[in-house]
Amino acid sequence: MSYKDTVQKILDVIGGEKNVNRVTHCVTRLRLELKDENVVN
Q1: HSE on the CB side for 32, CA within 13 Å?
Q2: Which residues carry out catalysis (predicted)?
Q3: pLDDT of residue 41
């Protein structure tokens, strides 16, 4: 699976790009601050 495919799958389950307030990362984690957590599948 490519990085592009992985990103699209993540966006699909979190309600899309418009539901993201902020993204941060470290070596082992991707942290997402979402506008509406109830949209997450």
Answers
A1: 16
A2: 26 (phosphocysteine intermediate)
A3: 87
Q: Which of 4, 5, 21, 26 is catalytic?
A: 26
Q: Where are the domains of the chain?
A: 3-39
Tell me if residue 8 is catalytic.
no
Could you report the per-residue pLDDT of 16-32, keeping only the tens digit for each?
Answer: 999 999 999 999 999 99
Which structure tokens are listed for 33? 């601050």
Which distant-in-sequence residues (6+ apart) come within 8 Å of 33 by Cβ?
20, 21, 22, 23
Residue 18's contacts (CB-CB under 8 Å, 6 or more residues apart) are 35
